[in-house]
Design brief:
Helix content is about 40%, strand content about 20%. With about 525 residues, the chain is α/β, with parallel strands linked by helices. Strands 1, 2, 3, 4, 5, 6, 7, 8, 11 and 12 form a ten-stranded mixed sheet that branches. A seven-stranded mixed sheet has the order 13-16-15-14-17-18-19, with helices on both faces. Helix 10 packs across helix 11 and helix 13 packs across helix 16. The longest helix is centred in the N-terminal third of the chain and has 19 residues.
Amino acid sequence: MNIWMVAREYSGVAGAGGIKDVVRELSEALVRAGHDVTAVVPCYGFIEPGKIGFESFGPELEIDMNYAHEERRERIGFFKGEINGVDIILVESGRFHEKLGVYTYTEEEERRDPSHKMGEGHYDYFAMNVLHQKAVLALAISMGLRPDVFHCHDGHAALTPVLMKEIEGFRHYFRSSRALVTIHNAGIGYHQDVADLPFAKANTGLPWRVIYSSLLNGSFDPFLAGAACGVINTVSENYARELRETELDAMTGWLGHALMDRGIRLVGITNGINPDDFDPSRPERLGLPAAFNPAQGELRGKIECKRFLCELIQKRELDGLKLYGGLKYRPDQPLVTAISRFSEQKGIDVLADAIDALFGEDNAFQSVILGDGKKEIVTQLVRIAERPDLKGRMALLTGYSQRLANLIYAAGDFFVIPSRYEPCGLTDFMAQLMGNIPVVRATGGLVKVRDGFNGFSYIEHSPAVLKEAIKRALDVFRNSREFKRRIIINAVADIRENHTWDRVMERYLRLYSGQKE
């Protein structure tokens, strides 16, 4: 099959979240299976195509990008490169080039223009998405190609199916092509919707019939528009169920129920992972100081990883991360870890309350938390890390470093994921592959962690219940070492048997070919 990935990020080129890894790893799995895959991504201002081996490619095109009271066109060009057998095409435009972040403004952009506040979404997010999707379809036509499938990732690309079916020219040319929309996160704020309906109509070129039939809570919603013209799925079976059948759908603005009311089936396919990418038996690739093999329950190297992590923290050799608190080397005590965006969705506010209380009850365990996000949550975690009575027991690292993340996965004994909702979750896989047992709230895709088999799980989203779940894990560390070892072995075996991208890819191929899941 000839498959085109339509996405705003791709690992190794431009990334902001988990989508970059999903798009790349699924693409590479499809290539390994003998399919032709092209991924099309915007050429943001932080990308230097020549330095990453890309060359100017194809024609310059003009794309209709009208505003409600102004007819406009924008000029675009293209660069092309290749990564592990996947053709990558970058869409060059002034609109993309001026952006230094994938989805939000950076500190440098705020310095240049104080109205562009760091961390806020781009003011022209909708037009960026529309330009990118029209560019993908226009490029295929200019190349004389009719891909079998356009795989459209998240709200940023969800209009592609409806553009294919409703815009004259696109409609005739792509009549034999299919489209699939994957919802990576359906939470409010992730839909890429727009309330200015005349602008939505002018910018997309779609008829009023489509605009009005795709409203969710008064806004034109790309997920609803795209789902009417293509197959739609989300990134775990349980998240798909929650959106259709539970009150958690309130956090999407009731998107799942709106799809159900329209008779649209929402398929769930849990994301995969490439286990070899997180295999600590080959430590050099991960920047680890020692090898160990969780698949066989051989964990002695984890002690050396813990020692090395403590040493880096004490020396403040932290890749530019900010450190609060500290960590003494205590190999006899369990190390509780977390790596996350600091937000209510990720439950880090609940984790802060739980771990604060647990420090008052247990005078020995240690903790390392890495991430950044909401100012109030950062302040809460800083206060805990700097408690005088916790000297050497908690380190908070704000910012992000892949090297430090790998080391925390490898050094940790337990990895906490207390999400309020979680479409899939990949950090639980990463932790498991490095012998770090997850403690998760059983929501969305995190139900793949089965309590007492490949991790620990709990249900109620509260500090008290999370605290008790962590206490159970600490008790296993101290009193049931063989049980802990068995959980680690089970976790790796389950991933390798059920959750590799080569397995997951087979389910996507069925959707691509029009088969029902």
